[in-house]
Amino acid sequence: MTPSWPLPENDPWSTPFAKLLMHKLQLQPGDSVLDIAAGGGIPAFHLAEQVGPQGSVLAIDIHQSQVLRSRSIQGQHLPWLQFEVGDMRFLPPTLPSFNRITGNLSFMFFRPNRFEALSNLVRFLKPGGQIVLTFPSLGTFDSLWNLVDEEMKQRNLVKERKALAEYIEERPSANQAKQWLEELGLEQVEVTEWPLEIFTRSGRDFLEHPLLRGGFLDDIYECFEDQNLANEFMEELSQDTDRFTPLLAQRCAMSGFVPASK
Ligand SMILES: C[S@@+](CC[C@H](N)C(=O)[O-])C[C@H]1O[C@@H](n2cnc3c(N)ncnc32)[C@H](O)[C@@H]1O
User: Fold this and answer.
1) How far, in Å, is the centroid of ligand 1 from the Cα of 186?
2) In degrees to the nearest 10, what's the CA dihedral of 149, 239, 216, 219?
3) Which of 2, 63, 125, 159 lies 20 to 30 A from 73 at CA?
4) Which sign, positive or negative, has the C-alpha torsion 207, 211, 214, 217?
5) How many CB atoms sit inside 10 A of residue 164's CB?
6) Pocket around ligand 1: residues whose beta carbon is below 6 Å from it?
7) What spacing in Å lies between the alpha carbon of 88 and ligand 1's midpoint?
8) What is the pTM of this model?
9) pLDDT tens, 173-208?
């Protein structure tokens, strides 16, 4: 039986973002696609199935372990899909240009110079080509950050509070994304945000939440020099999740087209 490659239904983070990406993306069989921050292949496998054997998908990720994992899932399937190691911020000038550039959960990793990285990337689009990137935009988990800030204030944790403010300030916003796409001369620019609720219980369920630990929660720990203090602070916070739930992420998709006559 020929396998099919839908977006995995059991992934509560990547798939909701990828669904929004696919909704914004105008894709034709035969298109050439560059998928950046490809990770485990969401949505690269699905894209490859959509463009078919007349098309191509080059899926890049900075981490070799991710590329090897995706190649092992791929096996002999979809030979027009290629996983390679690469840094989306510094692509080699020898790379060809593409009809479409996609990146699910990617734009937050364009730092430190997001505009420059976006501008470099758009150069690899053919005339009439479309770029669609998704990311959790500014506003994501604000209820949590507000409570953390409030608690830090109560405890007079001045340095930690400053680090938190810098971290929040550094998150990309939907408005910024729109402005940059327009500044780059793209057309039909659309930047959309949809809330996504992340469910959590209190205590260890929250502290070891698969979506939050190794990502957003680690960012709070990093605001503390003293990790014992961070552990104690977070333990206390985790006891009463009612104070910051519902926990809402802002699912943001940014899309634009290079003018056809460029
Ligand atoms: C949140 S994951 C998203 C993976 C996949 N697109 C998905 O939706 O499941 C982000 C991926 O971006 C990769 N990444 C981070 N910085 C990168 C860079 N500068 N260039 C290419 N990939 C990068 C990470 O290794 C990680 O696999």
Assistant:
1) 24
2) 50
3) 125
4) negative
5) 20
6) 14, 18, 36-40, 42, 60-63, 66, 87-89, 104-105, 109
7) 9
8) 0.95
9) 999 999 999 999 999 999 999 999 999 999 999 999
Q: Are 41 and 77 in contact (CB under 8 A)?
A: no
Domain ranges in the chain are: 14-137+172-197+249-257, 142-168+201-244
Q: What is the pLDDT of residue 3?
A: 66
Q: For a ligand 1 pocket test, name from 61, 124, 218 the mutation site with the most ligand atoms within 8 angstroms of its C-beta.
A: 61
Hey, what CATH topology would domain 14-137+172-197+249-257 get?
Rossmann fold (3.40.50)
